[in-house]
Amino acid sequence: MKRLNPTYLIIVCLAGVLIYQQLFLGNRYKKEYERMLQEKEESYLSEINKLESETDSLLQLNLSLNNQIANIDFKIDSTQARLTNLRNRYEDQADKFSDMSHDDLITVFTNTFK
Questions:
Q1: What DSSP state is assigned to residue 100?
Q2: pLDDT per residue over 45-58, tens digit each?
Q3: What is the Cα–Cα distance from 16 to 10, expressed in whole angstroms?
């Protein structure tokens, strides 16, 4: 029988220890890594939920502001129409008064305050 070289014997022992660790002990670093990944995933999911709720709030605020702007635009348009109507009436009255003679004006004002 041939004697085994001590180097081969050490290599076989180390290989046996590595195989034993992989098969029976499992990889502790892998478990720790998976736990850290799970924690990161949970923190990212909670951050996503928080940002989604903020987005919903901002969308509601934006909708409310758009409605208020539309309301203000409507009021401006109606006020503009009223102003145009009053301006036209003023111009008509001014034209009437400018077409009247002084005597006619005096007569109209006198009859008005009787």
A1: S
A2: 999 999 999 999 99
A3: 10
